[in-house]
Amino acid sequence: MEGIFFNIDNGFIEGVVRGFRNGLLTTNQYLNLTQCDNLDDLKLQLSSTDYGNFLSNVSSEALTTSIIQERASNKLYQEFQYIRDQSSGNTKTFLDYVTYGYMIDNVALMITGTIHERDKAEILSRCHPLGWFDTLPTLTVATDLESLYQTVLVDTPLAPYFRDCFNTSDELDDVNIEIIRNKLYRAYLQDFYDFVTTEIPEPARMIVQEMLDFEADRRAINIALNSLQSSDVITSELKRELLPSIGKLYPTMTEQMATQATDFDSLKSILNNVHEYRGIFETKNIEDQFYKIEMEMCRDAFTQQFTVSAIWAWLKSREQEVRNITWIAECIAQNQRERINNYISVY
Amino acid sequence: MSANREQVFPTRMTLGLMKSKLKGANQGHSLLKRKSEALTKRFREITKRIDESKRRMGTVMQTASFSLAEVTYATGENIAYQIQESVANARFKVGTRTENVSGVYLPLFESSIDSVINDFKLTGLGRGGQQVQRAKNIYTKVVESLVHLASLQTAFVILDEVIKVTNRRVNAIEHVIIPRTENTIAYINSELDELDREEFYRLKKVQEKKQKKSAALDAELKAKALNAANKLEVENTDSGIDASGTGGPINEELPSTTSHTQAGQDLVTEREDDVIF
Known about the structure:
- The complex is a heterodimer.
- Chain A contains 14 helices and no strands.
- By secondary structure, chain A is mainly alpha-helical.
- Chain B has a two-stranded antiparallel sheet with strand order 1-2.
- Chain B is mainly alpha-helical.
- In chain B, helix 1 packs antiparallel against helix 3 and helix 3 runs antiparallel to helix 4.
- Classes of the chains: A mainly alpha, B mainly alpha.
- Chain A: Keywords: Hydrogen ion transport, Ion transport, Transport.
- Chain A: InterPro entries: ATPase_csu/dsu_sf, ATPase_V0-cplx_csu/dsu, ATPase_V0-cplx_dsu, V-type_ATPase_csu/dsu, V-type_ATPase_csu/dsu_dom_3.
- Chain A: One of its GO terms (biological process) is vacuolar transport.
- Chain A: This is V-type proton ATPase subunit.
């Protein structure tokens, strides 16, 4: 029944997204890309895909990996912006929630730049376009967290996420920023999850919840893994505050990761208790493994009709696609053929 | 020949000076030659090592920039900025000390890692932290080998310069100073020989003069004696004493001949002294 009224608001958007989804690079196209001898060939191959002539005004001398990445990302941002502009109601809120993650990154970036007294323009150019909000440039006035919150962030959607951050020290330094970022992200994931649970109808709810669960687990595992070497800064209490409060690992494994995971092997044995992540450390690159799981999730998300989750799945797929293209371009540019097949292709 | 020698007075003292100079030059030449050989040996060694590390550099750099690509793949593009901003202290430091190779001071760069300082260990906490750490380790190795290469390269340039200077000196001594000193010695010897010959000739001349003089004296004496004898004879013939008259001139003549030979002997000895000297 839920499908009956879906098309009133979201039919067009879903149509557009499904069109975009069909434009995602397929395994065969990736195979063609890996056969390229140089970046010019790559450009030629890409021009026969949905990317079209996105590199048309770049001369072959100026063609670098970073330009390819930049152009491909810009194309994605434009398309996402278009969809966002077409949306209304809950769908719009949902898409806003999607961008909050990028906003957190931007805020962290701005604060980092501010405490090192960097030029504002320099930092703004590096901010993620999807996480842009109007008061972002004014972030530079803040020197401590309290004033940052009072002057700027209180008007942004991120304000509630800062609630948990004030019990740490008020002075901003690099360690704090990284911790704040992760605390914000934790609160954001929780908030997003609550929003989805209450506002988004099935079946999109289930899909998005699954994706959020996975995102939370990925962050949890990464934080546990990356904080192994810095146990002096990140105590188990602090770790408990950083690890997300949703996901398949929560609460049992999260608690164990916070208190018991002091080395790689104990972390591994904890994760072996969870079916989804059993053996994730067996392969060489855990990041690749996560990307693969994520992409499979996104692919499966398109199997459901009448969902807003397809938009998010498409966004993630496109981000991965940009990463893949960058990776392939990098391998071609640096002549590292043996690892060119490390990209992740599910379509 | 005369152009390629020093402007000196050809005296025995200068000869002695020149001889010691030649000796010094020979000694210096062999010393410098040995130095230049030692330096060249070192130079070849360094060239070999530079070659090796440059070749190694290529592969190391490749892995390094590839690990950076991995970081970008895992974390997104802003990671470089975050890392740049979160670094406050130098973890990797380069110190220098000097090494003495046959009197040449070569700067030696040494790298040290302060493992306590680890500024961006939290970067990528939520995503890609391991890639960041791996890239850090690989790039540490890159910088290490860069420092090593810089050390070698500096030594290479300095040694090259020093070897050139030393070789120039060796060649200058071998082809300019030694021949010139030898020429000067030859010149002084020839001049001294010339002087000796002049001296000999002069002595000969004196001797000849003396001989002539004494011959003339003899002749005069003889003539006087003859005259006296004639007078005596005339008187004897006048007075009739024959025996004593003939004995007189003979006695008179003897001392004069002995004195003459005496003088001749003196001259001979004198001359011979000169020649020896």
